[in-house]
């Protein structure tokens, strides 16, 4: 939203990009130290992200959700998946020592903390509900709060269940993090960043 639009392309030696208002950039496949694939909640539903980090610490982030304007996003999953799959193959071919990771342990810990807070809130609301059983105006407020917490449970459980980061084979990246069949509506990816 606050940055310029960036266009990526794969060349024989590097991931290159052009950014409006800035100079072009590149990250050589041989310099890539790590590739991380995640999924996260976005205005268009689940979105995907690929982060490539160089040995010098430079980063390139590619996302399947493209920001068009305030409140308007474009889902580019169809082109994102094949692009990232080929990028992983080229990095692995040029630098077999690079690390390929799916998911984010840091985000998993964050969701675990949110889950524990959720349990605490439910316990407090339940205790408060029993204290105000005969106070009708407050009873409705507590019922609404409990309902909101109940709606959040599936999201929290999915994120906590996904676990932290795991390594993946760069020649067979997880389809769920490329927009494949496992990422279709009704099916959730096994790793997140969200």
From TrEMBL:
Residue stretches of biased makeup (Low complexity): 174-186
Region Disordered, residue ranges: 171-194
Domain of life: Bacteria
Upper taxonomic lineage: Bacteria, Pseudomonadati, Pseudomonadota, Alphaproteobacteria, Hyphomicrobiales
Name under which the protein is recorded: Uncharacterized protein
Record keywords: Membrane, Transmembrane, Transmembrane helix
Species name: Methyloceanibacter caenitepidi
TM stretches of this protein: 108-130, 136-157
């Amino acid at each position: 939203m606050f940055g310029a639009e960036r266009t990526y392309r794969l060349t024989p030696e590097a991931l290159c990009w052009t950014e409006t208002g800035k100079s072009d950039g590149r990250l050589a496949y041989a310099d890539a130290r790590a590739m991380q694939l995640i999924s996260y909640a976005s205005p268009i539903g689940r979105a995907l992200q690929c982060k490539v980090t160089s040995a010098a610490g430079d980063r390139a982030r590619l996302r399947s959700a493209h920001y068009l304007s305030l409140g308007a996003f474009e889902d580019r999953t169809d082109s994102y998946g094949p692009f990232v799959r080929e990028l992983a193959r080229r990095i692995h071919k040029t630098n077999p020592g690079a690390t390929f990771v799916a998911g984010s342990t840091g985000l998993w810990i964050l969701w675990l903390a949110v889950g524990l807070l959720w349990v605490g809130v439910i316990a407090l609301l339940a205790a408060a509900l029993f204290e105000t059983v005969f106070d009708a105006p407050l009873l409705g407020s507590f019922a609404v709060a409990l309902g909101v917490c109940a709606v959040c449970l599936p999201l929290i459980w999915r994120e906590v269940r996904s676990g932290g980061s795991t390594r993946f084979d760069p020649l067979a990246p997880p389809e769920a993090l490329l927009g494949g069949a496992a990422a279709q509506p009704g099916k959730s990816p096994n790793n997140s960043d969200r």
